[in-house]
Amino acid sequence: MTEIASTSTSFCGHFISAPWRSSGKSMLSMGLARAATRRAIAVQTFKKGPDYIDPLWLKAASFKPSYNLDPYLQSDAELLSTYQQHMSQMMLVEGTMGLHDGLMVDGSDSNAAIAKQLGLPVLLVIDCPGMHRTIASLVNGIVQFDSDVAFSGLVLNRIRSTRHASKIENAIKEYCDIPLMGVVPECSELQIDERELGLVPAPDHPKASDHIDTVADLLETACDLDSLLETNRIHQSREAFTIQDLGKRDTSGTHFRVAIAQDEAFHFYYADDLECLASRGVTLVPFSPMHDSFPADIDGVLIGGGFPERHAAALADNKHCRDALANAITQGLPVRAECGGLMYLCQSIEIDNVVWPMVGTINGAVSMHAKPQGRGYMKLMHNQATVNEQCSSEVLAAHEFHHSQIHFDSPAKFAYQVTRGHGVDSKHDGVCVHNVIASYAHFRHTQNTPWIDWFLEAIQRSKQDALKTMSHV
């Protein structure tokens, strides 16, 4: 265990949560983040759980990367370390689902548990249509369910009239012991379109920053921002944390150049994973499979998740990039792909009876479905006969969320056996072709799933094999 050095710097923040999903957590989180930056407050945002889309909005709001805190994918020490490493003048953590929701019946992985773990008070946002006095009973039930959870205040969302607001405010004042920090009117301008995975990602929104400004402007009049953003109101110091020593990252430098797909179709990456790659001496070379040529002089490729089905026409039109990537893979280039990246490496994607050609490395065709084919956390086990990926845990933690299905023309080799979740066919995941591992599973680099180690080791083996080949020529 490592004690964090004591410091006189004070910190404050809120864990933003609600009784249920789609209550206004994202709206409040991004609005507060933008309002804080306007006031020259150094704000750091986080998202609880395995979410890629909300962190993109939080990043757009604060102009800084947002980090995930996930008790399923991370150990307690790793979660606390992520939080501590990025502590700023103000922390805003956006929860998921309801305050007391989680996989464990004892609530040990719930939003409330993480708020207590971080020492952050909960800013509770309530979606109010169809209720007034009942909200007081709802708030009391949430507050009293776990007396150890601290609350910084309450924000009422989607208030439809002055009369509606008055009824709720009077009930809160009469029956509840929680400060009312905001009354946000129902406003169509605050709504962000939702698709199968949640909000439209910020990179896909034509005016993401303008929308966030609109939210922040409304919060200026609807909330007590002077109190919510008062950095001296809630104190927290680094000495409150005792973080396990997770070991120093290897910064000796690999000097690999890794192409990374980043555009409207592919943008699901964990910020700290990309930072870890940089700390290992990796140079990330962004490219767009939709618009660009495939980069030259590359040692490996990352193709993250996203929505290739929404941009299938542009991906298909960029035949030069598809062909160059397919040829490089045939020559042994190591590739790690997840979900959307897996789909892109298949032969085709069929959408509304139109078949769009893709890279063709994986001998299978992708079809889309209205309902999720795989959704939630996963447990996997290595197929040691197929891959050489060493780790300290027999069971690997991951997550998935996909509406697509692959129809293989011939039997595939797989890197992983699925013990929880769906993966490719409810039994397997991680299609292996040449030096490619492409999965529906999304991994996060942790001690339990050190996927960056696996990827860099694969690159190193590939370079050694190439040198051996050259020496025999």
Describe this structure in words.
With 473 residues, this protein is α/β, with parallel strands linked by helices. The protein is 30% helix and 27% strand. α1 packs parallel to α2, α1 crosses α7 (208-222) and α5 (134-145) packs across α6. Mean pLDDT is 91; it is low at 1-8.
Return the structural class. alpha/beta
**Count of beta strands:** 26
Portion of residues within helices? 25-40%
> What is the first-to-last residue Cα distance?
52 Å
Strand count, sense and barrel status of the largest sheet are: 9 strands, mixed
**Reading side by side through the largest sheet, how are the strands ordered?**
14-12-15-17-26-25-24-21-22
Low-confidence stretches: 1-8
Classify the beta-strand content into a percent band: 25-35%
